[in-house]
Backbone:
């Protein structure tokens, strides 16, 4: 089975979690999407970069989720979500890319 790159999984988890929560009006369902994608990404981060990379990027993923909330008050919900998703994808790529 081909692997989906961890930057794509992380970004999709942030965007998908928000989209599901917004469109279903069920925040726990969006949280489940966020958590599942975060778990898949963390497993790939562990595989590609080791434990330190996985812990650091997982903390970044949680911080991106939390940071999107105050950012949304300044620039809007979707721009905030896309901004943190892009930042998380870039961080994931930078830490785990094949050298």
Residues:
């Amino acid at each position: 089975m081909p692997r989906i790159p961890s930057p794509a999984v992380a970004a999709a988890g942030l965007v998908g979690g928000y989209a599901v929560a917004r469109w279903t009006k069920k925040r726990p369902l969006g949280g489940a999407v966020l958590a599942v994608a975060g778990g898949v990404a963390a497993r790939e981060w562990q595989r590609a970069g080791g434990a330190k990379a996985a812990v650091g990027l997982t903390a970044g993923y949680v911080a991106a989720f939390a940071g999107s909330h105050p950012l949304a008050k300044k620039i809007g919900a979707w721009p905030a979500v896309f901004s943190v998703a892009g930042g998380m994808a870039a961080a994931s790529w930078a830490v785990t890319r094949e050298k």
